[in-house]
Task: structure prediction
Amino acid sequence: MSYRPERLAETIKKEFSAMLHHEIKDPRLGFVTITRVGVSSDLRTAKIHVSIYGSAEEQNATMEALSRAHGYIRSELGKRIRMRHTPDISFKLDTSVVQSIRVMELLKEINEGKEYTVND
Result:
């Protein structure tokens, strides 16, 4: 069993996080959190899962900005991570944080004895 994809995922997460905070100056990328990075076993593709604070419109604008910066981000990662082939990256909106907040609110309502509804 190889740990290389896991190590590469952690490296990509660290380097991309540094890029977001120090180098990429797009105001739409202000409230982005990298929740996890998944790398394929052949190291050719990487999915970067991001959580974005804001409304649905702000989230869409941020995802669009990330999509547009795809080439720049990939080339910068290639410079920072010495590999023969830089993985092709894609971004996925991670809604697990929002879902967990909703679950916590429902549990709080149950503990307080209030009626609750599930909005799905």
In short: Residues 4-95 form a domain with the GMP Synthetase; Chain A, domain 3 fold (CATH 3.30.300.20). The two ends are 40 Å apart (CA to CA). Strands lie at 32-39, 45-52, 88-93. The helical segments are 4-22, 56-68, 70-80, 96-112.
